[in-house]
Design a protein that fits this description.
The protein is mostly helical and 99 residues long. It is 69% helix and 4% strand. Helix 1 (2-26) crosses helix 2 (35-43), helix 2 (35-43) runs antiparallel to helix 4 and helix 3 packs antiparallel against helix 4 (61-81).
Length: 99
């Protein structure tokens, strides 16, 4: 039981670090702004963090790891393959959120 709480705290800490890094460097008006990172920090990160922490509390070790790795891979792949469509002024579309 104690191990579950430790894993849950570690997962919450990892998601907290991810949130702070995303907010500090990749959010809008920051030095390295990226659309997918900014959007998922506000929209998807709370859901992924909740799934990971709850899964850790219930002893589902693989689900905690899969949700963390899936969140990170989703951000990376979404930013790499999301792309921009510049033919729709005045805004552009970015499909990274779909990944």
């Amino acid at each position: 039981m104690k191990k579950r709480f430790i894993v849950a705290i570690v997962m919450a800490g990892l998601y907290g670090i991810i949130y702070l890094l995303n907010f500090q460097f990749f959010d809008i008006y920051k030095p390295y702004y990226m659309y997918t990172v900014s959007w998922t920090t506000r929209g998807v990160l709370p859901v992924a963090a909740s799934i990971s922490v709850l899964a850790a509390l219930f002893g589902k070790r693989y689900l905690t790891i899969i949700s963390l790795v899936g969140y990170i891979l989703g951000i990376v792949l979404g930013e790499l393959f999301g792309g921009f469509e510049a033919n729709m002024p005045p805004q552009y579309l970015h499909h990274g959120w779909e990944i």
